[in-house]
Amino acid sequence: xxxxxxxxxTVRFGTRRRGTVAVDxxxxxxxAGAVVxxxxxxxxxxxxxxxxxxxxxxxxxGRILLxxxxxxxxxxxxxxxxxxxxxxxxSALDPRMAIGASIAEAVPRxxxxxxxxxxxxxxxxxxxxxxxxxxxxxxxxxxxxxxRVALAxxxxxxPEVLVADEITSALDVSIQxxxxxxxxxxxxxxxxxxxxxSHNLAVVRYVSDFxxxxxxxxxxxxxxVDDVLTDPRDPYTRDLLAAIPHAxx
Length: 249
Prior knowledge:
This protein has 249 residues and is α/β, with parallel strands linked by helices. The chain has 2 domains: 1-81 and 161-249, P-loop containing nucleotide triphosphate hydrolases (Rossmann fold); 94-158. It is built from 9 helices and 10 strands. The chain has helices at residues 46-53, 71-76, 99-106, 113-126, 143-156, 173-190, 201-207, 225-230, 235-242; strands at 4-13, 20-30, 35-39, 61-66, 69-70, 82-85, 161-165, 193-198, 210-215, 218-224. β9 and β10 (218-224) form a beta hairpin. α3 packs across α4 (113-126), α3 packs parallel to α5 (143-156) and α4 crosses α5 (143-156). The chain is globular. The chain starts with a strand and ends in a 7-residue tail after the last helix. The model has no long low-confidence stretch (mean pLDDT 89).
């Protein structure tokens, strides 16, 4: 279980004179084996920070460390210890591939065809899908099923860190709870370090051990989730809580 650390991370789009700072000198620690919820309104920079951790968005300044080692250097050695699950389950999967093939594609090399097939069945079981679903195409699945497949595909890479970016916001309310229960159970069973991003404070409280509140590209508050959400110190955190009906989430 590695620790994920953001040290003075800045992400800028455009030029220095005419650019936009999406993430502004963020310092954030995701302790080994813990879930850190990152919450903030749209445009706060939380998804940009997640994409930077996944290597999908260049970092302008600062660095991202995994157990004290620069994450870019870890990737350069051929390791993929961090995997990301995206918000939109409809665009996360290749529509031309059966879901079993999509999951198998992410399994580390060196396995035989039979071993990959068995691993796909195991991963589908982990996300509560039957193994026979491996032959289905993404357009045959519901949104909740697609998100489960996307999670199975992320787990196929055998990550030590999982970044989940608004993974229930595109799902029907009726199935959000089941997906959240599954994610929380998998994180505990597999002892994953997890950065869980959401705009929903109730969701963050349900799945997280710690919470970071992000506003205008900066972390304005961080601490144990119950402490932050029951006794917020920053005015922005209080505003987020006040905007939710029955704010005692």
